[in-house]
Amino acid sequence: MDNKVALVTGTSSGIGLHTAVGLAARGIRVVATMRDIAKADPLRAECADQSVDLTVRGLDVTDLDDARRCLDAVSAEFGPIDILVNNAGACTAGTLEHLDTAALQRQLDVNYLGPAALTRHVLPSMRKAGAGRIVNVTSNGAAHGQPFLDAYCASKFALEGLMQSLEPVAARFGITISVVEPASVATNMTENLDARALFRADDPYRELAERFLRTAQAEMAEAQSARNAAAVVVEAATTDTPRFRWQTSPTATALVGLSLADLDGGNVAAAMSRWLD
Ligand code: NAP
Prior knowledge:
One of its GO terms (molecular function) is oxidoreductase activity. This protein is of the alpha/beta class. It has a single domain, classed as Rossmann fold (3-Layer(aba) Sandwich). The strands form 2 sheets. The chain has a 7-stranded parallel sheet, with helices on both faces. It has a two-stranded parallel ribbon with strand order 7-8. Helix 1 crosses helix 8 and helix 4 packs parallel to helix 5. The chain starts with a strand and ends with a helix. The mean pLDDT is 96. NADP nicotinamide-adenine-dinucleotide phosphate binds next to helix 1 and helix 6.
């Protein structure tokens, strides 16, 4: 993996931070991106702890022109991107009555349209090289809906649908596409959760929403560490035996397994690949 170039989104905290450091520890030249580079101190501290080096760049996945400029500048400076990790994500809580079209759109922008645009932008150079890895951090909520996470799950379903459709075609050009599905991970996701809609005093869903939040908090008490979840992302990005679908913990495997029998994505990948024979 020496001399490979990886770009990771959303590295100011959590899974993205540890993925960037984990890839750098494998000798990969990592460009760790975040929307506000003033928030790079925790990443730099972890790099110092692990004695690794990487490059930090600004990238907001919802600013598509800026994102394209960033990818072009990275390719010009470091060479073509070999590994793209679409990790950046955000979560809005609410049942559909709480979610206007703007709220649904915001979730699609960050969790679906941003990763789609970044992936489209790196595909030509990967296709010409006949190699490349695209790893997407999705969620168990990409395989099954979750109450009060309607918009989040929809955006993660969309990303997995896009990537699973792309996978057999990209594979014909030597490009590997994967999704990594964490369940609860102890990160800033809970602090960053946009749950404003759930706390209106006269909301008919309020009692149910409070029950949901209690369940979510209890799950968070058992959450996997960001470092452990990131180790699976690093494995998906670097393994010699790539596959489409990864879960980061037994809890994630159990939850994804409620909806899916094809837990590593191999059955769908093989069946869809035959459509191209
Ligand atoms: P986190 O600590 O909140 O990290 C999310 C990262 O995404 C942050 O760096 C955040 O940057 C960044 N981000 C948000 N909006 C962005 C944008 N528009 N452009 C660029 N970056 C943006 O949470 P995390 O758990 O590590 O989340 C990483 C991924 O794991 C997400 O895709 C999430 O959906 C997924 N996931 C998490 C869990 C969990 O329980 N934690 C479970 C399943 C899936 P700022 O610091 O600027 O906000």
